[in-house]
Amino acid sequence: MSGILTNKVAVITGGSSGIGLGIAKRFAKEGAKVAITGRNQDTIDKALEEIGPNGIGIRGDVSRLDDLTRLYQTVEKKFGKIDTLVVNAGIYIVGPLSMFTEEQFDRTSDINFKGAFFSVQKALPVLKDGASVILVSSTVNGKGIPNHAAYSATKAAVRSLARSFSAELLDRRIRVNTLTPGPVDTPIFSTITTSEAEATAMKEAMGNFTPVKRVATSDEMAAAALYMASDESTFMVGAEILLDGGLRDL
Ligand code: NAD
């Protein structure tokens, strides 16, 4: 198949679900070879059925450096290079400041912040010169939303990493940019609710709070990621695409 990413190789952390899966499907459709990661083998296998023959799956935890090393070694063996790295794996833990536990804080920070940092560091030997790296932040990173302090701080850190990394990697023409979503219809809401009905209600409420009166789809995020991965965005360096349905103005 011929597409805008023909002959490119992409790694998408957390590509087994939600936004990452949407990006993986779109990249594969555009001709890229796609390696996805996730923590659960069944979820990875189901995702690969949707991605098709251009996809491979590697199980691992982005907060574990040995898992990241193994991930990139596997990709190098299989495909020889990485043209696009999407650092998307993340978790969403919310709770009041007075009750937030050290364990919740450490998990949020280990996966969303430390995981993002080392996902890029460990990829460096396999990233091609001129590669595109996309870090997934969140629109809450610049907002004061109750119960979101730790999550928001990790997502602000991700934006900061994109700026620092891109300055540091310019000698290799590696561009590092941030994709910043508002609320997106993904399974992440089920991780902070006790039933599917509650998750649906939460998504509806978030949609209604957004000026466009709905949450986004993963496909809408994938369209922006496609631009950022492609050679159409070669002047985009240390920058951000904010896709939040107008939420930033609130
Ligand atoms: P999701 O729960 O559907 O997907 C998260 C993915 O990350 C899964 O594949 C999961 O296996 C993976 N993951 C989680 N912890 C991991 C770990 N320790 N090691 C390896 N993989 C791990 O969620 P999503 O909504 O698609 O979220 C994707 C990214 O988008 C996250 O970084 C999230 O913070 C961000 N985001 C989501 C929204 C939203 O409204 N859904 C909004 C803004 C930002």
TrEMBL record:
Which InterPro entries does the record match to this protein? NAD(P)-bd_dom_sf (IPR036291), Sc_DH/Rdtase_CS (IPR020904), SDR_fam (IPR002347)
Q: CDD domains in the record, alphabetically?
A: SDR_c
Pfam families assigned: adh_short_C2 (PF13561)
Per the record, the domain of life is: Bacteria
PROSITE patterns xrefs? ADH_SHORT
* Family label: Belongs to the short-chain dehydrogenases/reductases (SDR) family.
Question: PANTHER family from the xrefs?
Answer: DEHYDROGENASE/REDUCTASE (SDR FAMILY) MEMBER 4, DEHYDROGENASE_REDUCTASE 4
Q: What is this protein called?
A: Short-chain dehydrogenase
To which species is this protein native?
Answer: Puia dinghuensis
